[in-house]
């Protein structure tokens, strides 16, 4: 056995140029799949930690994740910097608050840009020039109400707000795609300038372009908007139209 002379070794600063961290609910099937499809490349790596979560999806259960955010963020490449880190839960980001999520995550990752699906949706809708929108959520009315108020606080007119009444995010992930397209069309008011489909569990990012083709207006989804924001933070530009019109837009951070 021969030991190689370590003086000849050379190291890159990073194994991959840009790093996106995801904090994903323990029960969520969808964010890693969507981010690998939308955001991952030879230049951008996706790194994930899971946070404990127990259904049903209620404001109380969502809010209970707040004390765990710092620990979850610390588990993503401990001791190393991330370019962006996203908390992959739209409804929890709303009830906990975008600023509170950022504060908790930055305890562990002080140099990372912190991204939430809710704030990314707002930025995405504004980048698309939409002010009057329709919203489709898989949640109950109780869980959806804080989200309606959230969008109104950010200056949007809600033409139509539709809830599916589900309480288990694993079931939300199983909504079949053709059904989801039909639901999106039914949930959109004729006068709306865009549709937002909420929830990181819902597989809407993969069919955003198909819904746009059907309706003729932009579609923003939780994972699509979050990936878009993370990519722009990493300096990545348009990835084509496969994932909706939003992916061609710049981000004002």
TrEMBL record:
The record's listing under Pfam families reads: Amdase
InterPro entries in the cross-refs: Ectoine_EutA (IPR014332), Iso_Racemase_Enz_sf (IPR053714), MaiA/AMDase (IPR026286)
Superkingdom of the source species = Bacteria
Record-given protein name: Ectoine utilization protein EutA
Q: Which organism is it from?
A: Mesorhizobium shangrilense
- What gene is it encoded by? eutA
